[in-house]
Amino acid sequence: MTNLILAWAITAAQVMLGLAMGCAAYRIFLGPRAQDRVLGLDTLYSNAMLLLLVFGIQTGRTIYFEASLIIALLGFVGTVALAKFLMRGEVIE
């Protein structure tokens, strides 16, 4: 019974994260301002990282955890670079 509940919870989490990624992609493509697009991108990489973590929990493989760590690090750097570009107009001073 416990394994069945866990399997349903993992499947539900994957479906909800997929829907959240779809909403973030909608914000990226149809955002009225650049700040909305950056926020959508930030949300998209966070949801992708969480989806990989859920896949890692489901399969028991550690490669998903390492990939989600790389996505988190690169996403943070990308968000900081885009925010700096939007504030000052240049990334490297």
TrEMBL record:
Note the topology in the membrane.
Multi-pass membrane protein
Q: Which UniProt keywords apply?
A: Antiport, Cell membrane, Ion transport, Membrane, Transmembrane, Transmembrane helix, Transport
Q: Membrane-spanning regions, if any?
A: 6-26, 38-57, 63-87
Q: Which InterPro entries match?
A: MrpF/PhaF-like (IPR007208)
Q: Where in the cell is it found?
A: Cell membrane
Which family does the UniProt entry place this protein in?
A: Belongs to the CPA3 antiporters (TC 2.A.63) subunit F family.
Entry protein name: K+/H+ antiporter subunit F
